[in-house]
Amino acid sequence: MGKTADLIVVQKMTIDTLHKEAATSRLLVGFRKWYYNACGFNKIGLMRDDTINEDSDVKEAIRRLPEQVYNDRMFRVKRALDLSMKQQILPKDQWTKYEEDVHYLEPYLEEVVRERKEKEEWAKK
Amino acid sequence: SMKSKTRLGDGLLVASLENYSPVSKIGVFVKAGSRYETAENLGVTHILRLASNLTTKGASAFRICHGLEAVGASLSVTSSREHMVYSLDCLRDDFDGVTEYLINVTTAPDFRPWELSDLLPRVKIDKAVADQSPQIGVLEKLHEAAYKNALSNSLYCPDHMVGKISVDHLQQFFANNYTSARMALVGLGVSHAALMKVGEQFFSTHTGAAAPGAVYRGGELRVQSGGGLVHALLACEGAAAGSAEANAFSVLQRVLGVGPHVKRGSNITSKLSQGITKATAQPFDVSATAFSATYSDSGLFGVYIISQADSVINAAMAQVIAVAEGRLTADDLTRAKTQLMADYLMSLESSEGLLEELGVQVLSSGTYSSPQTVTQSIDSVTSSDVVKAAKKFVESKKTMSCYGHLANTPFVDEL
Fold first, then answer.
1. In this protein, which residues make up the domain named Peptidase M16 N-terminal (chain B) (predicted)?
2. Burial annotation B287-322 (CB, 10 A radius, 16+ → b, else e)
């Protein structure tokens, strides 16, 4: 087998994998982990939902957070601002891990958006 | 008009009265009044009363409000010490569309924490308005002084619980009290078949909790609040609703007088009124009416006096003692019975009054007595029944609550 043949085999294998396996396949998860670490916000101890751009929907969703979740969010943001000012990052063992990142704001945000859309539907009638 | 009543398998009572009106009125009566609050969740019924328009599992708050407004319907909640009543008015043709809101509100509320904290200003306004009214104050204090539990709970959230009623409190109270067996679905101007279909959607998996009986203790509460007048409410334990004794107390109440029947009249037929005007030289700041309240297992009966002079309370008592000693003419008795029957029948003239009467009767006794039956039972009250009722007031342990400028007001043991 020549190099081209190897390449073709590898290519065929990758394409087959992508087609056959589900979204949570080992390949995609691996890619996601790499991307998460490349984003870099986990190095200053933040979670994905801490970094979301605060438009009016997000502001309302944050208002609805239960008290502990809100306090944890504020702590993480303060710590990140402090580190950013000092131009430092956390030691590697304190970086937020991909598995530990909880999308805590998502259910509240979905509900806020659903309510806004309901209001817009009514206004159209 | 056609009356129908059925009890569904899960205990829900469905009753309807077809009056061929263009407006339908549906009420859900739940045994979830303030008497069912426990020491841990005092004030939860006040919050529930205000929370009827909040998001439910089937419809958001926005949709309930706009959906009802779009068809001109209205949903309101009233609560008493024993019952919570959700009543929905709509045009007959819109009946099918709006019942889903009523079902959602009474069986599947969501109790979202942020919506509940947004209710706080409304609780405070309710309490501020109640504080301004000495009538409400004296009535709440009377119940607090008269009973050890259950009926002593206030209709308003106590100060120490404002802001502290949590989602858990609400969910627990809901699970314990909003069960099908403790609910009655009553409709005016609806067909019984349509109402039954609505009733079938009231399935409930809650088991409910047992409620304690009310224990009368007879006490005294006085609130110094300045002002020129004293509001005093003096009561004894009366009779439970629906009993023959309750009818006797109601007739006695009319014998003593419940307020002028002619506007700006001098209230000649009221024994209390006539008695106290002779006792004091301040005729314009004085008013005495007989007070009667009945609950499912107890009741209160007494006199409510607004005055400046301290002699008025004793004068009012003297009038009741006079009746207890048998000084009751046949004319007085007939007049009182006629007034009571007229008041009762007139209250049934409005759809609100009729719905309330239907619902409370169906929920407490499982049946509905026609107005004829009620007027007959009033008519059967004899003079000796009334005298016995007055004697009971004179001899039993009394409760008193006073509100106002109390420097000269006698204590209950000094009367």
1. 14-159
2. bbbbbbbbbbbbbbbbbbbbbbbbebbebbbebbee
